[in-house]
Design brief:
The structure holds 2 protein chains of 2 kinds. Chain A is of the alpha/beta class. Chain A has helices spanning 6-20, 32-35, 38-43, 55-67, 78-83, 86-95, 123-127, 141-152, 197-213, 231-241, 256-267, 287-293, 298-310, and strands spanning 4-5, 24-28, 48-50, 71-77, 101-105, 134-136, 158-162, 166-167, 183-186, 191-195, 218-222, 225-227, 243-251, 271-277. Chain A is built from 13 helices and 14 strands. The longest helix of chain A is centred in the middle third of the chain and has 17 residues, at 197-213. Chain A is globular. By secondary structure, chain B is of the alpha/beta class. Chain B has one domain (3-286): 3-Layer(aba) Sandwich (Rossmann fold). Chain B has a 5-stranded parallel sheet with strand order 2-3-4-6-5, with helices on both faces. In chain B, helix 9 links the parallel strand 5 (210-215) and strand 6. Classes of the chains: A alpha/beta, B alpha/beta. At the A-B interface, helix 2, helix 5 and helix 12 of A face strand 1 of B. Bound molecules: thiamine diphosphate (TPP) and magnesium ion (MG). Thiamine diphosphate sits between chains B (33-34, 69, 71, 118-121, 148-151, 177, 179, 181-183, 256, 270) and A (30-31, 53, 55, 80, 84).
Chain lengths: 313, 287
């Protein structure tokens, strides 16, 4: 697959699925253009519902659609998907065991010029509270396609953290994906970097190259899911290397870093550090400026890795 | 209002438009449409209706403004710069890393901004709280709030509508920027709240507000409608019931992107890319 806007991959995948599965619907809150589903609406007018700027109602409506057997993908910016409609999602969707797929777009620093009001560093943390929820953040167009296909047939509610912008492919066409499973992208003996999402997996791979130049061999895991995390894969490489660094475009205290910390604390014996947002609010700026400002670049990941390896137990 | 005063407000509106187009054009992308549609209202507010002091942005006796449709921040920044709240040069820092002028309003970053907004629906509720607190603390000030017609899809807007009329917040004067467009299309296509038989005026009136429709690019008409709202509030003092009257909602019929040919009347003007040359041309055309 070529480098492609993630939202275009999202919409195309849904249209392919919808052509075969009449249950698939999209539900929007005046951000259909942003999510990229106008083509879906053109192809399946009745199966694309726009609730207007009304996220709570959008999620409530999606629950009702799901109660009647539909599989709705309900989308808005991640900040509003998580913070604005949480009770509706928690209760009417998850607690009611209805397979609504809530889609939060523009994760973390990718919200760029929309600034702090629109920059979700907390959506995964919020969603981790929902029992049994699948939380997915694909890292490239191929994994996005595979995981949307998996979500469409899971029969469970889910939270999909969706990048809208173009992202370079990491995987080859035809790679298969499973909910709750990560992927080992690179082997290494000195530490393992567990990264999540469209920005940080790429930064982690760049960091691994920087570290290799300094004689440090970093393994890299693409977590793909923040809940459930792939405990087997992560613990395997944690034991092999003795040092784990998480990297996410999200609060390190409540997202992937928290999930991995709990795993390691329970299993024991491994050195651990986290790259992510350090208890801060978002800000406005270009994505590159924000990556530097919040300490999320490959250089920051490599720096964190070196410090961790140096103090390894 | 004298002819001179009207002309002065029209000039202020034009200057606000120029600064808004310049700031967004210098960056190359932004919410130009919904910013330009409120320029005339901002001119009337800051150059006639509101008591504010650029030297003392948090003066207790000031009138407050909550720009609930926070994405129109650049129009308010243009206004505040024109009024002298901060140096004009700041306008070129819009959205740059570390700026005091983020795309959406931030009360902690920008002198003259009373409330942080950007998540639609929340500002009008905050305006209710601000109006309530000022009455509680016996400050005779007005709270103004600006919401979008698309923003009015949010249930929270109507929860605020209930609150303000229940608590008789007659020093709350709100405006709906009725430019008939939101992101995904016209409001008539996406969520028709201003439809014949059940229009905005009827809805707000049903919630207990004094509501009227006003031509939103006519500074005289806007000023007169605000004067009427103030007179109603004054009357409630005169008859011994301070703050006993209705809150006011003025439905301003406006045009998205008003005043810039490259974007006027276009749904696509909501958050638009345009280069600095386009901006300079539009500014020159304003005269
Ligand atoms: C809670 C929330 N949901 C969605 C958005 C994204 N958004 C920003 S502006 C907008 C459309 C608003 O339309 P309107 O109020 O008519 O704005 P205007 O035409 O005045 O620019 C949307 C959906 C947001 N800022 N906040
Ligand atoms: Mg509008």
């Amino acid at each position: 697959m070529a480098t492609k806007e993630m939202r275009a991959v999202y919409a195309e995948t849904l249209m392919e699925l919808a052509a075969k599965d009449p249950r698939i619907m999209v539900v929007e809150a005046d951000l259909m253009k942003a999510t990229g589903t106008t083509g879906f609406k053109a192809a399946f007018p009745e199966r694309a519902v726009n609730a207007g700027v009304a996220e709570a109602n959008m999620v409530g409506v999606a629950a009702g659609l799901a109660a009647e057997g539909k599989v709705p993908f309900a989308a808005t910016f991640g900040c509003f998907a998580s913070r604005r409609a949480f009770d509706q999602f928690f209760l009417s969707c998850a607690y009611a065991k209805l397979p609504v797929k809530l889609v939060g777009t523009d994760p973390g620093v990718s919200a760029a010029f929309n600034g702090g009001t629109h920059m979700p560093f907390e959506d995964i943390g919020i969603m981790r509270n929902v029992p049994g929820l699948d939380i997915v953040e694909p890292s490239d167009p191929v994994s996005l396609k595979g995981l949307v296909q998996a979500l469409a047939v899971s029969g469970r509610p889910a939270y999909l953290r969706l990048h809208r912008k173009a992202i370079e492919p990491i995987y080859k066409e035809g790679e298969t994906f499973e909910l709750g499973k990560g992927k080992l992208l690179r082997e290494g003996k000195d530490l393992v970097i567990v990264a999540l999402g469209g920005i940080m997996v790429a930064e982690a791979l760049k960091a691994a190259a920087l570290l290799a130049a300094d004689g440090i061999e970093a393994a890299v895991i693409d977590a793909l899911c923040a809940k459930p995390i792939d405990a087997g894969l992560i613990m395997d490489w944690a034991r092999r290397t003795g040092a784990v660094l998480t990297a996410e475009n999200h609060q390190a205290a409540t997202g992937l870093g928290a999930a991995v910390a709990i795993l390691l604390a329970e299993e024991g014996g491994v050195s651990f550090a986290r790259i992510g947002i350090k208890d801060e609010f978002g800000e406005v700026g270009t994505q590159d400026w924000l990556l530097g400002h919040f300490g999320l670049t490959a250089a920051h990941v490599a720096g964190g890795a070196k410090a961790l390896v140096a103090k390894r137990k | 209002m004298t002819k001179e005063e009207t002309a002065g407000l029209e000039t202020a509106a034009k200057e606000i438009r120029k600064r808004t187009i310049d700031a967004i054009g210098f960056l190359g992308v932004g919410h130009i449409g919904g910013a330009l549609s409120i320029a005339d209202l901002l001119a009337v507010l800051y150059f006639r209706a509101m008591r504010v002091d650029p030297a003392e942005p948090r003066m207790a006796s000031r009138d407050r403004l909550v720009l609930s449709k926070g994405h129109a921040g650049p129009a308010l920044y243009g206004t505040l710069a024109l009024k002298g709240f901060f140096p004009e040069e700041w306008l070129h820092t819009l959205n740059k890393g570390g700026t005091n002028l983020p795309s959406h309003c931030d009360r902690n970053k920008t002198p003259g901004i009373d409330m942080t907004t950007g998540s639609l629906g929340q500002g009008i509720s905050a305006a209710c709280g601000i109006a309530y607190a000022n009455r509680m603390d016996a400050r005779d000030v007005f709270t103004f709030a600006i919401i979008g017609d698309g923003e009015s899809d949010e249930g929270m807007v109507w929860e605020a509508a209930m609150f303000a009329s229940h608590y008789k917040l007659d020093r709350l004067v709100a405006f709906t920027d009725n430019n008939r467009m939101q992101i995904d299309g016209t409001t008539a296509e996406i969520m028709g709240l201003d439809s014949p038989g059940s229009d905005f005026v009827a809805k707000w009136a049903a919630f207990g507000w004094a509501a009227e429709r006003v031509p939103g690019h006519d500074v005289e008409a806007i000023a007169a409608a605000i004067d009427r709202a103030k007179a109603r509030a004054a009357a409630s003092v005169a008859n011994g019931s301070v703050g006993g009257g209705k809150p006011t909602m003025l439905i301003l019929d406006t045009v998205k992107g008003k005043g810039a040919a490259f974007c006027e009347g276009q749904v696509g003007s909501h958050n638009m890319n345009f280069d600095y040359e386009t901006a300079k041309k539009a500014i020159a055309e304003l005269g």
